[in-house]
Structure formats: C-alpha cells, structure tokens
Design goal:
Strand content: 5-15%
Number of domains: 2
Order of helices and strands: HEEEHEEHHHHEEEEHHHHH
Oligomer: single chain
Radius of gyration: 22 Å
CATH architecture of the largest domain: Alpha-Beta Complex
CATH topology of the largest domain: Aminoglycoside 3'-phosphotransferase, Chain: A, domain 2
Number of helices: 11
Number of strands: 9
Length: about 350
C-alpha cells in the first residue's frame, strides 16, 4: 500500500536527515510502502533502499526526553540486557519519527504454520522461553532509569481488566442487563485477583503472544514491549503457552511449563514447589484469557472488526477446562458457564 503524498514527503525528509547524521549508510531511498498498523496512533512504513530496507514508525510528536519515551527507553534497556529486540538506527521524536530494523513479515504464528512437527514446535518455544527467563531474571536493582516500569499488575489493575470483560463480553456481546449477575461474578473473581497480585513480581512484557514475536534469520525477536511492567512471572508464560491464536500440543505445553520452572528457580520468587507454581499458573490463565475475551469483544464493538470473534469459544473452553480441575473455582465456573452456554 502506498503512503499518502504528505507522508511520503515527510519520510523522505526524515530519512535524508538520518543519512546526513550517518545513522544509516548513504543509500538512495527507492520506494516506501505503508504497512498494516496496530490499534494505536503509530503508523508503520517499509523504506526500501538500494541494498537494504528499514521500518519507519511515525507517531505523535514527543517533546520530552528520550529516557522517558515509552518505546525507546524500554528498547534500550532490554537490548542492554541481551534481549533480542528491534535495532534502532535513528529518531526525531519531535516529529514522531523512529527508524528501526526491518524484521520482515514472519511472526511466530506464521512460522509455526509451516511447521507441524511436535519436536520442532517444542524447540522453537524453548528458545522463546530462554529469552523470557532472561527478562524475568532481571533484578529491580538493575533498573537505573527512573522512567522505566513504573506500573504493575496490582489488584486494582486485574479487577479493572476483569470488569472490562464484564462490560464488553458479558453485557455487550452476551447482552446481559442484570447488574446483580455481574456483581456476583465480580465477587467470585476477587480471590483470584488477590492471589496473583500479592506475590513477588518480575518485569513482564505485558502482551507476550505469537503475534508479538518475529522470526528473522532463525532469531526470535520481541516486539510491542512498550507497556512492560511488573507482574507475576506466570503472566507472560500464560500469554505465550495459552495463546488464543495458537494451540500448542498438550505435551509440549506441560513440558514447557516444567522447563520454565526449572530455568527460573521459582523458589527465589516464593514459589517453592511445582504444585504451587501450577496453581498460580491456573489463576493467571483464568485472568489473562478472560481479559483476552473482553479485548476481542471490545475490538468488535468499537471497530466492527469480526476477525477476533472466532477465538472467543476457544478461549472460554480453555477457562472452563482449567476451572474444572480445581473445586475452588466451582461456584464461579457454574455461574459463568451456565450463563455463557445459555446465550
């Protein structure tokens, strides 16, 4: 897709500045294509040169210091810790310009679609988890930039996300008009949110699924990490292994949980046994997947985008199966799924 003429001129001007600053080699800009963006204000473009290509991000102007920029500050920190993130070549934040590495178009889920071998699936995810463990092992004392990771997944945040799903899934999508029903659900969800918000936390990616990992030359690269914050380590692990977009083989999922547990040495985070780790994993699964259902319905409500509705049934069955394993979820499960199946 071709950019608008004003966008074309702006990118040409800013890219010429990058060349003048020796941020990139002196290659002529040959072509600019507009890429499909995300739900934010950011717009992405692929800039083709004679021998290579780059990705240009245009966002709202940013007048503050680079150290506080939500994307660049996190990118610099993660890169310094050996986490594979996109390389940044240049920026002009007052014009919303960031020039970064072209990672290609192959996401993890696209890579997996060409690979049906269970052994290869495990090895691919093991490599992802190795990097995730590296992220989660970063100590709070290593964070020197005061602008970084100021937010966390506390009780209020988890309850806000749960009520977000009540609003867009229970009330809008399933057309519930009974406030007393959502009040009852709210009370039943609270112990879960209290449990997962009261444990020692690590730096979490925040949105760690198969569409936010790129595959380039055999490397697995983190993207969309600008909302990273403190949270339970299972938050990212659940996002990865219980991805609503891709269903891992059950044996690989179980083996990868154990692999993560062994690599992380969870006792340092107060999770002394594998059973305790799994119990928190299930609590986190319920929260994380229920929030995803709310997001799918929100996208449908506000953007009339139906693509994500197909994942709702898969996500809800994942929640139901998890709840069926433990009697502590019995009352919540019965109330939630009696209503869900009736609608």
């Amino acid at each position: 897709m071709k950019p608008e003429q004003s966008e074309q001129f702006l990118i040409e001007e800013l890219f010429s500045r990058s060349i003048e600053r020796n941020a990139v080699s002196h290659e002529s800009l040959v072509e600019i294509d507009k890429l499909t963006g995300d739900a934010s204000t950011r717009r992405y473009y692929r800039a083709f040169c004679e021998k290579t290509s780059f990705v240009v991000c245009l966002d709202n102007p940013y007048e503050k210091e680079v150290e506080s920029h939500p994307f660049l500050s996190v990118q610099e920190f993660l890169n310094s810790k050996g986490i594979r993130v996109p390389k940044i070549y240049d920026h002009h934040l007052r014009k919303g310009y960031i020039l970064q590495e072209d990672l290609g178009d192959v996401t993890l889920i696209q890579h997996l679609s060409d690979n049906t071998c269970e052994k290869n699936e495990f090895e691919t995810y093991r490599k992802v988890i190795d990097q995730l463990v590296r992220l989660h092992k970063i100590n709070a004392s290593e964070v020197q930039n005061p602008h970084l990771f100021k937010l966390k997944f506390d009780y209020e945040k988890f309850m806000d996300e749960t009520r977000f799903t009540f609003k867009y899934f229970i009330n809008f999508f399933l057309k519930n008009k009974n406030e007393a029903f959502t009040d009852e659900l709210d009370a039943l969800f609270r112990p879960i949110m209290e449990n997962i918000s009261s444990r020692p936390m690590v730096i979490t990616h925040r949105d760690f699924h198969s569409r936010n990992l790129m595959v380039k030359d055999g490397e697995l690269i983190f993207i969309d990490f600008q909302d990273a914050r403190w949270g339970l380590p299972q938050y990212d692990l659940v996002s990865l292994l219980e991805d609503c977009y891709y269903d891992l083989s059950p044996s690989n999922r179980e083996n990868l949980k154990k692999y993560y547990f062994d690599q992380m040495k969870m006792s340092d985070l107060g999770q002394k046994t594998y059973e305790e780790f799994l119990s928190l994993y299930d609590d986190m699964l319920i929260q994380r997947v229920f929030k995803a259902v709310g997001s799918f319905c929100y996208i449908y409500n506000w953007r009339k985008d139906e693509r994500y509705l197909k994942y709702i049934g898969f996500a809800m069955e994942k929640i139901r199966r998890t709840m069926s394993k433990n009697p502590k979820y019995k009352e919540l499960s019965e109330k939630l799924f009696k209503y869900y199946y009736a609608n």
